[in-house]
Design a protein that fits this description.
By secondary structure, this protein is an alpha/beta fold. The chain is built from 11 helices and 13 strands.
Length: about 325
């Protein structure tokens, strides 16, 4: 006899969080939200915010559930919206569908919502609970939250390091420090961000494409941003062949403010140690994605990692894995709200 598994509110919210992560890097300027609808312990509908931010996750889940949504519980990773934009408010849609209970992870700081969605639901007699798995949801939604509270996207610094702390190899050797699996994971990270920032020095030395080169994910490539004092790219570089490159002559905080104004919420930083150190010194790094190979490279002098002066005590390790011979560690800044 198969034993029935009774899932809890936390189990269903974890499903909603997992769904929401599929939208990271695809929904800006809107947040990547996940929603599941449950009735009598059974999943009846699920949704994630669609590309470019519409439809919302709640609308997708309600469409899947249909009439079964009457009396159901909705688990949502962000407070349902309360304003009318290109679509009706999600709070109103949940009300009209007859949902009996809504559990959401974190409040939406957007001035058009900011408690209004929860209030609309409660006024309709719907039971509302908030704060479930809030820390995890806040990490997932950090880019959207910072765009509303600090006028900037979140920044993930991605590093591929040798065992002796270098991000480069001698000129006569292969440029790859880590193996294929680590590099593929790095491309998945690119797909989960709206923009990818590098410096003019990296463009001149490495001539990167900064695209997501995984099968089927070319359209998920982040917008390239090159920080250059000259305001120009080398004519024959790969990025010069793309029509969506942003070239910025500003400091890190100015660049991020401009990206926020463009609706970007998630930025990945792939650059040399000097530019990385500038972002770190300005306290603008929110996450670290560190890939470390087991071998050393034949470089001398001060290592690249030592130039950056990363204080890992300010970060919490949220994930680690072995990717073939390489170690991957993901760290997030500790934030109280």
């Amino acid at each position: 006899m198969t034993q029935q598994v009774h899932k809890t509110d936390e189990d269903f919210m974890r499903q909603a969080l997992a769904l929401g992560r599929f939208g990271l890097g695809m929904t800006a300027p809107n947040p990547a939200v996940g929603c599941v609808l449950v009735k009598d312990g059974q999943l009846i509908g699920c949704g994630v915010t669609q590309k470019s931010g519409r439809p919302h996750a709640e609308a997708m889940a309600l469409a899947e559930a249909g009439d079964a949504a009457q009396g159901a519980t909705a688990y949502v990773t962000l407070e349902p919206c309360a304003h009318t934009g290109q679509t009706p408010p999600c709070a109103a849609s949940l009300k009209e569908a007859g949902v009996a209970r809504v559990v959401y992870a974190i409040d939406d700081p957007d001035p058009r919502v900011n408690g209004g969605g929860a209030a609309m639901l409660r006024e309709a007699g719907i039971s509302v609970e908030s704060g479930l798995l809030a820390d995890e949801a806040r990490r997932d939604q950090l880019g959207f939250l910072l765009s509303k509270t600090e006028n900037r996207p979140m920044v993930t610094l991605k590093l591929a390091l040798s065992a002796n702390g270098f991000m480069r190899t001698p000129q006569d050797e292969t440029p790859w420090i880590t193996g294929p699996l680590a590099r593929q994971t790095g491309h998945l990270l690119r797909a989960a961000h709206d923009v990818i920032i590098t410096g003019s020095g990296t463009v001149a030395q490495d001539d990167p494409s900064l695209a997501c080169r995984l099968p089927g994910l070319a359209d998920a490539s982040p917008v390239p941003v090159v920080m250059s004092r000259s305001g120009a790219l080398p004519e024959n570089c790969k990025l010069a062949q793309r029509d969506n490159v942003i070239i910025s002559e500003g400091a890190p905080d100015t660049v991020l403010a401009d990206l926020a104004a463009r609706g970007m919420t998630r930025a990945m930083l792939e650059c040399g140690p000097k530019l990385a150190a500038a972002f770190l010194a300005a306290d603008l790094i929110d996450a670290l994605a560190i890939f470390t190979a087991p071998h050393e490279v034949a470089m001398t002098g001060e290592s690249d990692i030592s130039q950056m002066q990363i204080d890992l005590t300010r970060f919490v390790k949220t994930h680690e894995a072995m990717l073939g011979p390489d170690h991957y560690g993901h760290y997030c800044r500790e934030r109280k709200n």
